[in-house]
């Protein structure tokens, strides 16, 4: 399951992690609370995988070479999560479910360049979309301040900031030239948080 | 004082087989006494009602007219609906029966009614988004006239009609029932206003311009559910008192559905999937009824949710006696009312930061004056500048209204980029300079596009047009701007504890 990790990739500058997790959309799970458990496992696993690096495309994460141990830890954690949930499902329903597939591949320079290009484009689009989103929030600040959802707004802005601070660290580690754009986005988020607090 | 009203009905025509006639319908001139046919090439048919002084009179008269029309033109019905590319309206005239209104009376009526106009227009919007209200040139927003309304321009959405009336032109073509609800509100508000004007009282009504712009956009684009209906009803109640609502079923049913479910007659028609021919025929020939007309045509199967709502209205709307009952209904409404801040069109769907960055790096941009932006009127440019000052300028930037911007002694320049995706120019920043003195009084860039060199290019440009070295003021907390000014060779001096003064050295910096 964790092919690649601990198998001599120490010298790689970066990795990609490709995965296929188990979805909860099985007919046999309909109207069962096991469906919610499987869903929670999938969401947690996705979050752990995404936090490893930056997404190149769906189900492919580009991870910097200095996070090898972190990859191993995450893969083990996901396996444990799924083992626990799927064994419960199998006990309850008597049906064997497939296990998630997670593969870790070390990249040479050419491969890294290709995946970095994919990640950069995707990130640039996300930065543009988030700058637009936060700008719109700032434009609507007067209205939003008068609404009852001010606490939710503050929480979502803080969460967004945390998320982009995390991505920024990966971007620096992977040598993707988007640090300035992310800094500007974080600055915008900060000023929006400041404006909300002033209300 | 007795206030009268009349309605201009513009509509296309639908045949019993569903075929729609969207050009001038030669036989549509059939009228009973008191009605007029207007030869209008923009509508299938335009019929003008006589002057009415009461809802009772209007209902009987509309029933007689359209029963006659549908009888004579057997197999055809009015199609009061704006298909793609059509701009059919139902213009409501408010006046007095025995004379022309004075200009001062018209102004008082127009101002008082303008405060509820977005709500009423949303009630009558058909379809949603309303083509007529959002894109037509036949009902232009009042801010295009610098808020001078009712305007002599016939196409102003609140126009000073040569009939001696105030003409409300924003209403979409729709069934007579909803136009009558709106006419009743306009009539009652006008009665109150005229009584006060003629008794020498000053009502002191203030028009909430920003809310007008915002709600007009939101209501016509997204429907009545996006408006703060309680505030509108409260305003009406404060103005005309908690008077009894007319007892006609259609009147209370339409308001019940709007207030409780955010559903206007268009919403009912579009969800009910009834035959449009029979729907319009029934509505025009039985204007005192609304739900009875449509429930008879509806197939419940597959429409259960709508049927439930209509049935609720059918059962409970008759118990709505007064405006306060409507207000109470708002507070019983399920969930939190949706509020939408509608960003104006000039500031919506802007190109991405990366796109603009690429255009700037390629030198593919322009810095021009207000009246030089291609395919954009100076009014819209001024609105965008006003928007940038207000929403992107920070708290120390002085806000200016569009009309102030156009008339200001300083010269405004805008930074424009062509957006190939939407095939339009977008304004991403602006600078204002007094050419004679060199004072830079405003410099604002849309947040989306800061740190791309827009401010620097604007400053470099105004250096070339100013007759004196540039100077201005900058907040101490605006570190990015201070860095830019330093890099361009400006000198910065103490001004006060919050602000620095910047000045270009004689002979120019950089």
Task: Please indicate the percent range of residues of chain A in DSSP E strands (runs of 2 or more).
Answer: 5-15%
CATH class of the largest domain in chain B: Alpha Beta
CATH architecture of the largest domain in chain A: 2-Layer Sandwich
Annotation, overall tally of beta strands of chain A: 4
**Class of the largest domain in chain A in CATH?**
Alpha Beta
Explain what the structure shows.
The complex is a heterodimer of chains A (199) and B (510). Chain A has 199 residues and is of the alpha+beta class. Chain A folds into two domains: 14-107, 2-Layer Sandwich (Alpha-Beta Plaits); 113-198, no CATH class. Chain A contains six helices and four strands; from the N terminus they run βαββαβαααα. The longest helix of chain A is centred in the middle third of the chain and has 31 residues, at 109-139. Residues 1-8 of chain A have low confidence and may be disordered. Chain B is α+β, with helices and mostly antiparallel strands and 510 residues long. Chain B has two domains: 4-332, 2-Layer Sandwich (Creatine Kinase, Chain A, domain 2), CATH 3.30.590; 345-468, Aminopeptidase, CATH 3.40.630. Chain B is 40% helix and 16% strand. Chain B has helices at 55-72, 103-114, 117-124, 131-135, 176-198, 209-222, 229-240, 249-261, 265-272, 276-285, 291-295, 304-316, 323-332, 353-361, 378-392, 402-407, 454-465, 479-487; strands spanning 4-15, 20-21, 36-38, 45-48, 76-79, 90-95, 158-160, 166-168, 366-369, 411-419, 424-434, 439-445, 471-475, 491-494, 499-503. In chain B, strands 1, 2, 3, 4, 5, 6, 7 and 8 form an eight-stranded antiparallel sheet that branches. Chain B has a seven-stranded mixed sheet with strand order 9-10-11-12-13-15-14, with helices on both faces. In chain B, α2 crosses α5 (176-198), α3 runs parallel beside α6 and α5 crosses α8. The chains are: A alpha+beta (199), B alpha+beta (510). The interface between A and B is medium-sized, with 21 and 16 residues.
